[in-house]
Amino acid sequence: LKVEAGATSRALGRRYHLPATVADSLTALRTVRELVLDLQADAYLLASADKMHWGRDTVRVQVYVGEQFRWAYLRNGNLGDGLLTRAGYREKFFRRAPWRPADWAALQERILTEAENQGYPFATVGLDSVRLEGRDIAGRVVLKRGPAVAFDSIEVIGTSKTKKRFLTKYLQIFPGAPYSQQRLDAAAVLLRQLPYVRLRAEPEVRFARGRARVYLLLDERSSNQFDAIVGLLPNPGTGGGFQFTGDVNINLRNLRGGGKQIGLQWRKVDAATQSLDANYLHPNFFGTPLEVGTTFNLYKQSGNYLTIRPRVQVTYPTARAGRLTFFAEQLSSRLLLDSLAYTQVSTALPPYVDSETNSYGLAYSRINLDDLFFPHRGLFVTVQGGAGTKTIRRNASISEALYSNVNLRTTQYSFSARAERYWALGRQSVVLARLRGEGLFNQQYFLNDLFRLGGLNSLRGFSENQFYTNAYGVGTVEFRQFTGPEGYVFLFVDQAVLQAYQSDLTLSRSLDQPTGLGTGISFRT
Predict the structure, then answer these.
(1) Are 516 and 481 in contact (CB under 8 A)?
(2) Alpha-carbon gap, residue 311 to 509, rounded angstroms
(3) What confidence tens digit (pLDDT) does each residue in 137-147 have?
(4) Options 3.40.50.720, 1.10.10.10, 3.10.20.310, 3.40.1410.10; which CATH number does 150-220 get?
(5) pLDDT tens digits, residue range 387-420?
(6) CATH architecture, domain defined by 70-144
(7) DSSP per-residue string spanning 46-68
(8) Distance (Å, rounded) from C-alpha 501 to C-alpha 504?
(9) Is 486 helix (H, G, I), strand (E, B) or coil?
(10) Mapping DSSP to helix (H, G, I), strand (E, B) and coil, where does residue 347 land?
(11) DSSP secondary-structure letter at 179?
(12) pTM across the whole model
């Protein structure tokens, strides 16, 4: 393939990466056509392939390049300065700059997007007062707004019991507000983040008499949870008798159709430890998109310590950028041994201490899953970072001299991250890859500060809370074979990397790498 364009032939070949050889005549025609289109896109508007001479093994093409057209100027016709600024228009960008069709089309698209989001979904944009002097093009950008349109109301079609009042605030689609295509596009993304509704199809909109009514095709989805396992164990104390053990989970979502959520979990898997978790979520706080939530965690290790952890958080959910959360929490821990036991401590502090940590931080999450509970494809990412002040409080029953080598007030940092990716292998098979980890950074650690790892919710294949560590990472690969829409059997491998602390705060080894293998079944009733 040989292209002849006068003195610019060689430069043309280098700039547009023309191949010296092509496989066949069809490829040659396609290459020449792409060259002409590239020239026109680069402001050589009159470029053309004038002649093609076919030889035995060579095709010669005579290309007319012509002059590169440019903007003399592009001025504001009837658009407001604010709209043009938001659309990215600057007059200096269009003065003596090459007249590339793609740049003009992109500006048109941005102006139309701004108009669609300000109540003018039928707007059109074009050039007016066009002047052509040689290769210079001048004109004014003009917007024909068309009729103004406002949102009318939201209509729910389906079995969902979610109130329209909540959906109106959650989606920020208020009656009488200017129509916004951006809010309509975001509606489907936001609705898929709600665990108690199922979106049957994309939202629809109908225009009539300057109003836009939005139809949401939503079905109710069972999302409430109540399960309990309760048992009796002999009391290891000298008094005999029995004590309760068990695992109780209660999760109530979309209370009274208003999107509120409340949860409670109590666990006591052995005689020594028990935990209590509670949470509450209030969406659309005072009519805003903000979600206000609170959580409470209690962990008790009998005879050693009691830790409570209240937390308050404010979340701003968005369709495109994910969910951004600001939180404040307090971690308070106190010893439970009687004073007589502490008076016998004379050489070093026990592995547990009385302490209080106040911290603040930010969290970010992004959900792009086809289903919140039983995903087949998509990505989920969440990261969190916090910083605060940890204060160690002296215990009156422990000798004050033992605190002499301990910093009673330190700065503490924490970090956590989790990423999950799902791949669908056919209609019923799914592969999950997950990475997650946490880190706690301070000058000194005690056992009641550390993360507890092990069990079904953290590291499968090991006893509950078997490992104490200040930092860990867990990688998971899991294969799921679905037996129905909401049930599957699975095989998994969990691989952890951590530094495990013993009960006396010594490290078991420089690095632990526990591995968990197993299989299971998950289904909804």
Answers:
(1) no
(2) 34
(3) 999 999 999 99
(4) 3.10.20.310
(5) 999 999 988 888 888 888 889 999 999 999 999 9
(6) Roll (3.10)
(7) T-EEEEEEE-SS-EEEEEE--PP
(8) 8
(9) coil
(10) coil
(11) P
(12) 0.78
